[in-house]
Amino acid sequence: DKFTAGTKSNFRFQIDDLDGNSYIVDIPLITYTDFTIAAGGGNQDVVQDGTWGASIDTNGVYSIQIDALDA
Length: 71
Hints:
Layout: E1 8-16, E2 22-39, E3 46-54, E4 65-69
Antiparallel strand pairs: 1-2, 2-3, 2-4
C-alpha cells in the first residue's frame, strides 16, 4: 500500500471561491513518509494520520505549482 510503503505518488486538487475563481494546486512528486491508517468498523470512515514530502518533479521544473484561474 502506497501510504505505508514510502511509495512516490502525486497530489493535485482544485479550490473554487465564491466568485468563481479557481486555484489548482499540483504537487507532482510526493513521498509518503509516515502514515498510520486507523480503519473503523463497517460503514465508517477510514482516518489516516501522517506526513509526506514534496520533491522536484522528474522534469526538474518544480515541487509545487499553484495556478490561479479567473472566473
